[in-house]
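Incident review: delayed structure delivery

Summary: a single-chain prediction request sat in the queue longer than the usual turnaround. Root cause was a stuck worker, restarted by the on-call engineer. No data loss occurred. The affected request and its eventual output are reproduced below so the record is complete for anyone auditing the incident later.

Affected input:
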Amino acid sequence: MNFAINYFMNKFIFLILTICTIACNNSSTDSGIGDSTSPRRDSVKQEPYYPIKEYIAGQIAYVDSTPLAIEQITYLDNKKTDSVIIDRNTFKKLAAEFLEPDLNVASIKPLYEENSYNDLTINTITFNYTTKNKTLELQQADVLLNPENNKVKTVIFRKNRTSGDTAISLNGLWTNNMNFQLNYSYLLKDGKGFTKQVKIIWDRPMPED
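Output delivered after worker restart:
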């Protein structure tokens, strides 16, 4: 399933409906009908956001179906500390960071705003999602598409959370069909901190015994 094509089709359909609504409203206004028929300012919220969750679920299914080794490389304060082959269940638990929250859930969608633009410097179409609510864990998500085929190149997110007395900043980066990484920044109660980076790579052949 091509999520990008479906998404752009939804964008096009919504645009047509919006134009029709505005045209009808202008006609009603000219004929003296009251403001009760004016389009709602929040009508744009009815438009679906890019289906990030469905895309990531498709990537997880792809990895689950391929005979590829999944390597986990861990760094602490930018120093490599471990490199192991992990099983599918471990992979799925780590990948789950990209699945939640689903921005298209009715109770969550109004809390985020979408902006899109074509970045010629890196040859991508970017869909950017942000919130003004500092209490939400997910603060930002970005989907970068290849403008030539509308396929996802990367997905990026930024989250803030706490664990006990520790503040944690988490940045995620998913590269289509290749790898993803989770970058943690920990700030302890005493003001000290450290960083941890976990890279998950699966675009390599299974090692021979």
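Verification: Residues 49-201 form one domain.
Action items: add queue-age alerting; document worker restart procedure.
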